């Protein structure tokens, strides 16, 4: 009997349970962020492919044209990812230790 009692884990305190829920939530958010990052990379590749196919003037400078076209989209995506990252960081900072 004594061996069985030692193998049982003590029940988590309400504080530990709350911290575990928060940790699970942060991990879930991280997984979602990773998934969104992959989708962003794929979208950026598709965008660059479409831009190179729809280039009306072949003698036009590619880097300058690409920068003009991508700039608003890149700014928007950076803003969205920045907001998500800030939200995740604030959640992690609230975790003790």
Indicate the topology:
Elements lengths: L1 H6 L6 H40 L8 H33 L3
Helix pairs in contact: 2-3
Decide which structural class fits the backbone: mainly alpha
Shape: elongated
How much helix, percentage-wise, in residues?
over 70%
Count of helical stretches: 3
Largest β-sheet summary: none
Instruction: Report the span from N to C terminus.
Output: 36 Å
Compute the average pLDDT: 78
The radius of gyration is 24 Å
Keywords:
97 residues, mainly alpha, 3 helices, 0% strand, elongated
Describe this structure in words.
This protein starts with a helix and ends with a helix. The chain has helices at residues 2-7, 14-53, 62-94. The protein is mainly α and 97 residues long. The longest helix is centred in the middle third of the chain and has 40 residues, at 14-53. Helix content is 81%, strand content 0%.
What's a quick, concise take on this entry?
The chain has 97 residues and is mostly helical.
């Amino acid at each position: 009997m004594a061996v069985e009692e030692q193998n049982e884990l003590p029940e988590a305190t309400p504080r530990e349970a709350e911290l575990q829920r928060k940790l699970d939530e942060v991990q879930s958010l991280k997984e979602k962020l990773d998934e969104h990052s992959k989708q962003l990379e794929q979208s950026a590749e598709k965008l660059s492919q479409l831009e190179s196919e729809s280039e009306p003037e072949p003698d036009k400078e590619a880097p300058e044209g690409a920068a003009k076209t991508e700039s608003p989209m890149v700014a928007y995506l950076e803003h969205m990812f920045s907001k998500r990252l800030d939200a995740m960081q604030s959640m992690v900072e609230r975790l003790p230790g």
